Amino acid sequence: MKGWNGEKSCIFKFILFSVDMILFLTGLIFIIGFQRTAQFFFQRYKFRGSFFFLGGVALVLFRWPVIGMLVESYGFVLLFRSFLPMALGFVLSVVNIPHLNAVS
User: Fold this and answer.
1) With left for phi above 0 and alpha for psi between -120 and 50, is residue 2 left, alpha or beta?
2) Which entry of 77, 86, 101, 103 is 20 to 30 Å from 54 by CA?
3) In the chain, where are the structural domains located?
């Protein structure tokens, strides 16, 4: 995929995606610790989500950024699906949008 400025755009995207993945994982380790991070990702019922999330990170690092981001997004949803309704409820209670409040 060539961007508006040629091949440099694709390389720049790859570098940004790679740095993003590395910083996210190291930030998570620094915030909650290595042991808790490993426990979070390798719980039995979260194995599928962890597989897709870490597989997406690996795809991004192996220069497949678009497919890697899609796979990683699917894994993120699987990992945090129990948390997403609570987060959505919080956002809807803070931001008063009448149409969205009627849906939930």
Assistant:
1) beta
2) 86
3) 7-103
77, 78, 84, 59: which is closest to 69 by C-alpha? 59
Distance (Å, rounded) from C-alpha 77 to C-alpha 13? 23
How many Cα atoms sit within 13 Å of 58 on the Cβ side? 7
Can you list the pairs that 63-70 forms with residues at least 24 positions away whose Cβ atoms lie under 8 Å?
63/14, 65/13, 65/14, 65/17, 66/1, 68/17, 69/17
**What's the Cα-to-Cα distance from 100 to each of 15, 88, 97, rounded to whole Å?**
37, 10, 6
Q: Are 37 and 76 in contact (CB under 8 A)?
A: no
- Single out the residue of 71, 52, 68 nearest to residue 60, CA to CA: 68
Which amino acid type is present at position 8? K
pLDDT digits (tens, 9 = 90+) for 56-67: 888 888 888 788
